[in-house]
Amino acid sequence: MENKFNYNWTLADSNFTKDKGKVFSCFACGGGSTMGYKLAGFDVLGCNEIDPKMIEAYRTNHDPKYSFLEPIQTFKERKDLPSELYDLDILDGSPPCSSFSMAGNREKDWGKEKKFREGQAEQVLDNLFFDFIDLAKELQPKVVVAENVKGLMMGNAIKYVRDIYSEFDKAGYYCQHWLLDASTMGVPQRRERVFFVCLRKDLAKKFLYYKDMFTEVPKLDLVFKEKPITFKEVEDTSKGNDPEVRDSYKFLWLKCQPGHNFGTVHEKGHYFGENKLSFDKVPNTIIANSHGSFHWHPSKLRSCTDLEYCRIGSYPVDYNFLDNKPKYLIGMSVPPVMVAQIANNIFNQWLNEI
């Protein structure tokens, strides 16, 4: 069975039809979700992003009609936005919520201001989702899609999910969420993410059904059963061993079995972010660290090449990363093919009918 979208693709050879509707992307990073919508046939008008390095990469690769380099807090208050942004089919966003990640401090960081990369102002990260909902309330797109970390659905963070539902309801939307795994969607990566998909209430009447005795929502099928793609299929066979591997990594790589992380053989469990891949398994999640947390080749003493990271992340192999590290930017992004699958279903089941 062929996968619906090709994970091994190029921007240069793609034919973006732009006939499925208009999209605008917030927290756009390098454009992972943007490329997904384009693959599905949507016309992405542009983006809002706070990081100058990220928006430079976005502009270089996507040449957007509109791009706004500023915090979402000021962007949502603008009164000079183009009229096209008030006629969107989909408003897309991935509000940074690392404070909800299972790998972070979680509750210890909730409510605190944090600053990430160059050019970013300090922000309370757990509020960014609600700033995004404020923007949706202003623009009133037909559909809102918001992506976030799996940790948002776990432990005490679930109260934020209740608030998200409540705020979308006040903004005029039916809200639903799905926990999706990219490896079931034609992406060579085991990456779980939560997607909130919301339909404007005045458009939802023909799609409504009772999810349970008390909850009426628009019907949307987001079940994916695409063929798993293993590392064997994405391997960069042109690259041999890397002579510059540090002795500490070399020692752990030699002891570690394919399909496990280096922490399983380190005497104190360190280096658990370093994963030795298996030819016969889907690669695990790409972590957006500038240093460390690499994917390691199963039989060659090297970490993954940029080409392999592009394929694992379903990023176009001709993407111009400028001076950004490919692994970091890809790890920060939603896999394009993952978004393409969701966008395709939204169009077929909702927008095409509307």
Helix and strand arrangement:
Blueprint lengths: L21 E5 L5 H8 L3 E7 L2 H11 L3 E4 L2 H4 L14 E4 L19 E2 L8 E2 L3 H12 L3 E7 L8 H14 L1 E9 L10 E9 L7 E3 L5 E3 L12 H4 L12 H9 L4 E2 L13 E2 L18 E2 L9 H7 L13 H7 L3 H16 L3
Parallel strand pairs: 1-2, 1-4, 2-3, 4-7, 13-14
Antiparallel strand pairs: 5-6, 7-9, 8-9, 10-11, 12-13
Helix pairs in contact: 1-10, 4-5
Give a short overview.
The chain has 10 helices and 14 strands. The chain has 354 residues and is α/β, with parallel strands linked by helices.
Any overview of this molecule?
The protein has helices at 32-39, 52-62, 72-75, 128-139, 158-171, 231-234, 247-255, 306-312, 326-332, 336-351; strands at 22-26, 43-49, 66-69, 90-93, 113-114, 123-124, 143-149, 173-181, 192-200, 208-210, 216-218, 260-261, 275-276, 295-296. It is built from ten helices and 14 strands. Helix 1 packs across helix 10 and helix 4 packs parallel to helix 5. The chain starts with 21 loop residues before the first strand and ends with a helix. Helices cover 26% and strands 17% of the residues. The chain has a seven-stranded mixed beta sheet, sandwiched between helices. It has a domain at 22-228 and 335-351: Vaccinia Virus protein VP39 (Rossmann fold, 3-Layer(aba) Sandwich). The model has no long low-confidence stretch (mean pLDDT 92). It has 354 residues and is of the alpha/beta class.
